Amino acid sequence: MNEQPALKVMVVDDHPMWRDAVARDLAEAGFEVVATAGDGLQAVRRAQAAAPDVLVLDLNLPGLPGVRVCKELVAARPALRVLVLSASGEHADVLEAVKSGATGYLLKSASTQELLDAVRRTAAGDAVFTPGLAGLVLGEYRRLAAEPSPATPDEPGAPQLTDRETEVLRLVAKGLSYKQIAERLVISHRTVQNHVQNTLGKLQLHNRVELVRYAIERGLDEV
């Protein structure tokens, strides 16, 4: 029976003891730690070479801030999942990280088990947040949706979504994880991910933030 390949993870933090401890915990849990880095520029170079599935990223980095690292790497490789692991629970930091392409945000006060679970869920495409922060992010989605958007994806000639893609989009806008959507629609987790990626491509959007904004602007979260 073929075993699933280990998830490839990279850890970026400017504190060597913390970085090494996180990398050790991940390795002991069966993840393949393909690289570590202690500053932003090093993180970008090593991530491009190591091609991790998940980047566990601190925000406060010398050389290049974590949000810039996140933005550059996700732009270059949209399949990359970024889990921010930060000491800061400041709302501005959380929102900036998500807007830069982070999939999730966990405080450093989290337990080792919470971190391991968050990395697994992040790799699967779920939006993972320390309790209390998910509501903040959804609230920001709604605030952004109330503002005029420069994008006009539903102009005449724009690509049309299938009924299933619209159904998945509606559940994403309601804040459901990919796993919850798969259970609700009785489809596989991978199928949900494929629908989301197809929808992003059709609408010429770049990440979950833009996708949720698009859905809320059209009232899909209220249906």
Unreliable spans: 150-157
**Amino- and carboxy-terminal Cα gap:** 44 Å
Spell the H/E element sequence: EHEHEHEHEHHHHHH
Radius of gyration: 17 Å
Tell me the strand percentage band. Answer: 5-15%
| Spatial strand arrangement across the major sheet | 2-1-3-4-5
Q: Outline, from the CA principal axes?
A: globular
Biggest sheet character: 5 strands, parallel
Number of strands: 5
What this model shows, in words?
- By secondary structure, the chain is an alpha/beta fold.
- Helix content is 51%, strand content 11%.
- It has ten helices and five strands, in the order E-H-E-H-E-H-E-H-E-H-H-H-H-H-H.
- It has helices at 16-28, 40-50, 66-76, 91-99, 112-123, 133-146, 163-173, 178-185, 189-203, 208-217, and strands spanning 8-12, 32-37, 54-57, 81-86, 104-107.
- A five-stranded parallel sheet has the order 2-1-3-4-5, with helices on both faces.
- Strand 1, helix 1 (16-28) and strand 2 form a beta-alpha-beta unit.
- Helix 7 packs across helix 9 and helix 8 (178-185) packs across helix 9.
- The protein starts with 7 loop residues before the first strand and ends in a 6-residue tail after the last helix.
- Mean pLDDT is 84; it is low at 150-157.
